[in-house]
Amino acid sequence: MAQNTPMMKQYLEIKAQHKDAFLFFRLGDFYEMFFEDAVLAAQELEITLTGRGQGEERIPMCGVPYHSADQYMSRLIEKGYKIALCEQVEDPKQAKGVVKREVVKVLTPGTMMYGNTIKEKENNYLVALTKFSEQSYGIARTDLTTGECAVTLIQGDLDEVIQDIASSGTKELVVETELDPNVLKRIQEKCPVTVSYENETELHEDYHHLVKSLQSDQLVTSFARLLQYLTRTQKRALGHLQQVKHYQNSAFMKMDTHTKRNLELTESLREKKKAGSLLAIVDQTVTAMGGRLVKNWIERPLINQQEIENRLTLVTAFKDAFFEREELRDELRHVYDLERLAGRIAYGSVNARELVQLKRSLQKTPLLKEYINKIAPTFVDRWFSTEHQVDELIDLLERSLVEDPPISVTDGGMIRPGYHQELDTYRDASMNGKQWIAELEQKEKVETGVRSLKIGFNKVFGYYIEVTRANLHLLPEGRYERKQTLTNAERFITPELKEKEALILNAEEKMEQLEYELFVVVREEAKLYLEYIQQLAHAISEIDVLAGFAAVSEKRHYVRPTFSVKRNIDIVDGRHPVVETVIEKGQYVANDVQMHEGREMLLITGPNMAGKSTYMRQLALLAIMAQIGCYVPARSVELPIFDQVFTRIGAADDLASGQSTFMVEMLETKYALTKATENSLILLDEIGRGTSTYDGMALAQAIIEYIHDVVRAKTLFSTHYHELTQLDETLKDLQNVHVSAVEENGTVVFLHKVVDGQADRSYGIYVAELAQLPSQVTERAETLLKQFEESTTTLQVQQTDVKEEQQLSLFMDEPETAVLVKERKSTVDVSEQEEKVLKKLVRKDVLNMTPIEAIQFINELQRLLK
Ligand code: ADP
């Protein structure tokens, strides 16, 4: 009856408290899992599924050895699972009945401190969401590895909430069990992270100091949920959590997840790698802390001009001081990841080697300060204000720890001689003992005449004298006691040897014990300096990012952007920061962008592959680079400060979402049209391509008109509908531009140069030829094109017709039918009554009718016609 043993009862009781996690149940040297946990873990970890008990009562079981459990746990966490670690909390020898066990910690993707899921240059965020009312949400986030804590309130719709949650590095979301499942579902569609539940929102008084600066109860409540969850899962002090910062999304340029992805800000669209992204270009950081910060900056460009200028001024300073900057960066390369180190100090998981690295990093502070004093003197105080406080810690670490301590903290070898008298005494005893043994070896060699005699040590037999078989005959009878026989040698002991051994081992055991105790004292002392270490980490990461911006700006000849109060864009010789690095040197064709009154919108036409979307993305990337405080690739740049950037570019990534490409296109366009302001930037690439020609063209035109008349955002709109270029006649702020191409000897050459005016044709067939489609196909296409061009007069849709066309097209898919019906409509005579019926039919919202309503409606139409 395996299920009813006392131990299984204990297991089931504990498991009931941790239903959403694998329960790693400690049994001797293994963590065991049972029932469905075992089945799933065996599958996910590819380990053997065994069983416990007999016959029908047999229950599935699998286990991982305690010593190598870390790697298994990491793998499960990486897959988004949680693990409740259940340990024996009393000595099995003392236990009466079943050994007492308790969950000592819950490991989750958002609370990991180490392992494969923690990337050096990426944050690992745990986010808690609290819904206060329909339009009001609180979001709290922390990265436990660094102690960073932040909260915000979002007054708005769920899209904004999702955007915030989905910013990169979010690994886990904590919500209350009562949260509307639809809300959760929508979040998970966009941001598929592990979800956990926490209903408590009381803030424990130990943490009141963290929320001092928060000015609303809702902010505190949002953070308290996060903290409750941490307390419940981590079951230990969280001393390294930093003051909670209140951030406001309105202080940053807004971009939805699609836009970030489309613009390839932090990873490439196709390969999902950093290479090929904007981040790869502007991240020239040399520390992990800087690497994480630059990623955060790219995801949240600033909108406050003064703050942007501050960063740019520093970039200028770093750029102007080439030698000092490069020397400073060389120094930074040796600075350890202080932010994460602070986390490990707080958790008590730091080892002596890391503390020595901490010491070396802290010792660099005066030098760093000196460099900053030379490069940007006014920033010295901001970055290095409290340096003196740390001297005592450096001194302690210097006195207490050897220069190259081992990773293990329990095997000794960490503490410097002279630091602690008692330790030195044990050390002497052990040293003397070893000295005595070395002398004994010498003496025995001489006395026995066995030159190869040696004294060795192993953990099982302790010290022994080893004599090879060939020399055994030289030993006087009874000189040693025989202990162990090997193939080629015999091992012996003597009573004095064992006596000394006891002395040495005793001293060593005491040494290890004492070293550990002394180390713990040092480690605890380091905890008192956490705040300072974190401040220094902040300073270093900022310096690192800005010095990196300067380095790339210099290397790639970027310029400092200026900001236009009149919302004008004036870019001379702008380049796409990523594309220019991947094509052959010197081959990139720089382009101007001019957008101001009279040309607030650019309608871009040109052959496929000419560079339309490169041109569009280039503008957005330049704006983002400017607003994160970096120089930009161009000869000169004047830009407005954009509050938001919206893009609809490319469709490759929509397939996985389960929605039709066209639907996604429309949803994103809706989002841009409803959220954008006149201070926003909208990029729309080939809108309307996903439906029939007339449908698509009508939509494209209506969208352009709406942006032009209502939204007024700066907009780039690329299209292959040449008919739309006529809009410049009626829309005063729309300007046609095209990417030029020339035909040379029957082939097309893309010049990648964007100039005013419309393109004369699409060159699609030439691109097809380039792609080496069978000539039969391209030739036939040429013929058809000619025929189509001859009949364009009938096909061309006049601006005023488009709205009608749009409605009619609800019933049609193919352009041919559309034309037919359109023609018929203009030729067939329709009576007044019939027209009335048709109008009624067209205006009816058919999709929102019940079947009964539909029948009644048809009945009414019939009546009107009879
Ligand atoms: P489109 O959107 O017009 O189809 P893309 O913008 O995708 O074209 O550009 C196609 C290719 O042309 C790009 O992959 C790039 O290699 C090249 N290209 C685009 N713009 C430029 C430019 N300004 N200078 C040099 N090459 C360019």
TrEMBL record:
Residues 680-696 form the DNA mismatch repair proteins mutS family domain. Signal peptide: none annotated. ATP binds at G606, P607, N608, M609, A610, G611, K612, S613. InterPro entries: DNA_mismatch_repair_MutS (IPR005748), DNA_mismatch_repair_MutS-lik_N (IPR007695), DNA_mismatch_repair_MutS/MSH (IPR017261), DNA_mismatch_repair_MutS_C (IPR000432), DNA_mismatch_repair_MutS_clamp (IPR007861), DNA_mismatch_repair_MutS_core (IPR007696), DNA_mismatch_repair_MutS_N (IPR016151), DNA_mismatch_repair_MutS_sf (IPR036187). SMART domains: MUTSac (SM00534), MUTSd (SM00533). Coiled coil: none annotated. Keywords: ATP-binding, DNA damage, DNA repair, DNA-binding, Nucleotide-binding. It comes from the Bacteria. This protein is involved in the repair of mismatches in DNA. It is possible that it carries out the mismatch recognition step. This protein has a weak ATPase activity. Belongs to the DNA mismatch repair MutS family. This is DNA mismatch repair protein MutS. It comes from Halalkalibacter alkalisediminis.
